[in-house]
Amino acid sequence: MPALLPVASRFLLLPRALLSMASGSPPSQPSLASGSSYVPGSVSAAFVTCPNEKVAKEIARAVVEKHLAACVNLIPKITSIYEWKGKIEEDSEVLMMIKTQSSLVPALTDFVRSVHPYEVAESYHEEPCSC
Length: 131
Hints:
Subunit structure: Homotrimer.
Largest sheet: 5 strands, mixed
Radius of gyration: 16 Å
Distance between the termini: 45 Å
Number of helices: 3
Family: Belongs to the CutA family.
Structural class: alpha/beta
Pfam families: CutA1 (PF03091)
Keywords: Signal
Strand content: 35-45%
GO biological process, one term: response to metal ion
Order of helices and strands: EEHEHEEHEE
Helix content: 10-25%
């Protein structure tokens, strides 16, 4: 197993409306007739990088088992370029796209930080959109 580099985990949360805008379609609003229980601003997505697929799968499975997320998608073979300790680094990583309730973000962040192998697991997030 390759040595784990002491790089920062990038942890990004995006509100549902922002994800819809990025896809080119406006955010859908539930109609009263649809019976949907979706509340605007209640769903977030977190993006976390991992050093390899084994680590990503272990964290993803634990997050879902602990009911901290409904689903985690793994996107293999991304290239991350970042500054670490004054030096520009480049690594191959796996991206976890974590879909969760906005109310679970603090617990999700704490859990990921507690099990992530990187020396520093940073958390970047957007406040949920109320639109």
